[in-house]
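Box 3.1 A note on notation
Throughout this textbook, protein chains are presented in two layers. The first layer is the amino acid sequence; the second is a token string describing backbone geometry. Keep the layers aligned when reading.
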Amino acid sequence: MSTEALLDRLRADLGKDAVRTDPDITGSYARDMMPLAPSGQPLAVVLPEDVTGVRATVRACAEAKVPIVPRGAGSGLSGAANAIDGCVVLVLTKLNEIVEVDPGNRLAVVQPGVVNLDLRDAVEKHGLFYPPDPSSYDWCTIGGNLSTNAGGLCCVKYGVTTDSVLGLEVVLADGSLLRTGRRTVKGVAGYDLARLFVGSEGTLGVITQATLALKPLPQAPGTLVAGFPSTAAAGSAVARVVREGLVPSLMEIMDATSIKAAEAYLKTDIGAGSGCEALLLCQSDSGGEVARRELAALEQICQDCGADMTYATDDLAEGNMLLQARRVVLTALELYGTWLTDDVCVPRTRIADLISGCRRISDEVGLRIAVVGHAGDGNMHPTIVYDPASEDEFARARRAFDEILEVGLALGGTVTGEHGVGKIKREWLEREIGPVGMRVHRQIKAALDPDNIFNPGSMFSM
């Protein structure tokens, strides 16, 4: 089938308005938020309105041997949704229905185009809570969260996206519809196919519906902030929190560079003090006296580990104000240039070592590197600031990006905790999981997508 015949068939099956070929439009769907990842020029952008349109697109592209790159809102940070030359970008944002909220069984059934925050708001009306909360939760979509197994600030207590997945509906490479999982709390019938597709970054199939587990709506959180004279002291506090069995709903860390950037952006002193090298922000959503006891225990640990400053509050507005310093870091860094954020996860006892490693890399490449992250699970986001107009600075930023991954692996960590592999960390995936792991990945891919139609070149090559 020629490309023109393919486009004619797609227009006939989905309608002319659903198939876009104007270069300005296709170019706007060509890449996500990762500036280092390569991207190509799509043949077309297809925007189906239902699962029938998705299946028709997959069948037509499979017959024409034209690759498909599934895409949500494009908020990703790994290039997983980046187009390759001549592909069809399959945009799922119009499949945006919350099909069902079942309070009695604490689950929701949703389409992939539903925005994360919209789902959270919808289930909150039923006294329920959808835990995964990526930083882009106000515009990223559930389908993208599923494809990358996204995390967020609350992972320390509630886990990542896969921990909330009961079942999926997936369009396979031949256009057939696979239904995986269940609606029950327990279920071990057959392989856990749902978890295979979560985190597969669009390389195995197209997710068109998800059944998600919900939690009871937590209490308004109490907040603790603690400033430390060294990253080692902050790291010791994190390790002791874990060792003593405390599970805050949030535990974030900021290094000195992040603190200074946030203060400059907010035009306020966040109370860390001039000698503060690391800041811990913790929350408890247990409510009432339980939350007060948890925060008191966290505060005591921080003080025992050498914190110069601690402050706890159960006032929601004040807590949100304190947490704002963490949330604005990436925006704050734009005061100094363009940012490039990395994503490594290390054992929680090695967080301080990673921050020290990033400081060394910053000195070596001559670029600002700020480190923030989810201290509760060891997922750190070193962020490199550079001038995109300077080829030299861009090259140094790329070098720093790779050296951070090297440090993360050397500390017993992983090259991605929540952003995914995409088209930027393919060689790092191979280094991390080894030749046997890669062989198994390729065997699974070949079994489900024998013609390599779905997102070829993402995660690994065939």
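Residues 263 and 269 are 6 Å apart (CA to CA). The chain has a mean pLDDT of 94.
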